Amino acid sequence: MSARYLVVGAGFAGSVMARELAEAGYRAHVIDRRPHVAGNAFDEHDSNGILVHRYGPHIFHTNGERIFAYLSRFTEWRPYEHRVRGVVDGTSYPFPINRDTLNQLYGLDLDEAGAAALFERVREPRDPVVTSEDVVLNSVGRDLYEKFFLNYTRKQWGLDPSELKAGVAARIPVRTDTDDRYFTDTFQAMPKDGYTRMFERMLDHPNITVELGVEFDNVRAAEDFDHIVYTGPIDAFFGFRFGHLPYRSLRFEHEYLPDVDQYQETGTINYPNDHAYTRITEFKHLTGQVHAGTSIVREYPQAEGDPYYPVPRAENEALFKRYEALAKEESNVTFVGRLAQYRYYNMDQVVGAALAAARQLID
């Protein structure tokens, strides 16, 4: 009889692992505490027929040809390049900051060399670069930092940029050209039939069973499996033995606007300095859906709730390392994914981590 794997979580990490194990001839029983597959990428048609992302916008982008090809087995794609604008003092500007942002904001007519010279003139050199504040001040200086980054970061993380590791701000580029795409990856697209359908196809295999609305603790005590693939919070797995790892959560406010063809000029608008929410996303930009009305979502960061983002601080990393040491002693458990590895992964990075973990188990 082939080995039985319990896969905890039906998001990217768990679903990719389950599919790889199933194709290798093993049986994978996938559980999820939510009533649906796809994890935070879950999308569905709202009551007005518009495809919405229930847990905020998920824009797929990757430079990994292998990862894109892997997911292409389970979906066709709709080409989509995400664009974002940031509202400062009532005016929207291209974001990430590029040459057009500078020219519009300061009433200038800079070419690429002029934009580079402006950044060089206003930047506040930091050495070493340790925090997110260091990253931004070192790159664009005080004024742009305060207009676009400071308050957005405070809302998003509940912390000052000086309290966050450099990697948070390093994710956001600064450009001297006029490229207004949020991402510059080689592959940028949205699943043509939505994320949920892609996951359903991935989990459609005779060696995979799926059970939803189930808590891990109820299953781990009741059934015997040869190996567990765990994609939930690593601190929860160990009963919070060393205390809770800090996560940032979100509250989503979805709204349908009848008889509004387009609510905003780009898929997402950031509000760094106004409102309690950080951004508004309009889904029809992402999906290309044609509909008489439109649906938007506002995102309100908060401390309590489902864990979305590991909080990147040195003390949190140190706490994670204590849990990671326990995890390494669990020979029959594989920990993979954003929550299990306490990493601020993009979707493609989770797929890559899962494929690598599956290879280790199968080989």
What does this structure look like?
With 363 residues, the chain is of the alpha/beta class. Among the domains are: 4-37 and 203-246 and 311-362, Rossmann fold (3-Layer(aba) Sandwich), CATH 3.40.50.720; 84-170, no CATH class. It contains 12 helices and 17 strands. The chain has a 7-stranded mixed sheet. Residues 147-344 form the UDP-galactopyranose mutase C-terminal domain. It holds the Pfam family GLF. Belongs to the UDP-galactopyranose/dTDP-fucopyranose mutase family. Its cofactor is FAD. This is UDP-galactopyranose mutase.
Keywords:
363 residues; seven-stranded mixed β-sheet; 17 strands; alpha/beta; single chain; globular
What form results from the Cα inertia axes? globular
Overall pLDDT score: 96
Q: What is the percentage of strand-forming residues? A: 15-25%
Separation, N- and C-terminal Cα atoms: 18 Å
**How do the SSEs run, as a string of H and E?**
EHEEEEHEEEHHHHEHEHEHEEEHEEHEH
Number of helices: 12
State Rg.
22 Å
Kindly report the spatial arrangement of strands forming the biggest sheet: 8-7-13-14-15-12-16
**CATH arch. level architecture of one domain:** 3-Layer(aba) Sandwich
Give the low-pLDDT segments. Answer: none
Which fold name fills CATH's third level, the topology of one domain?
Rossmann fold
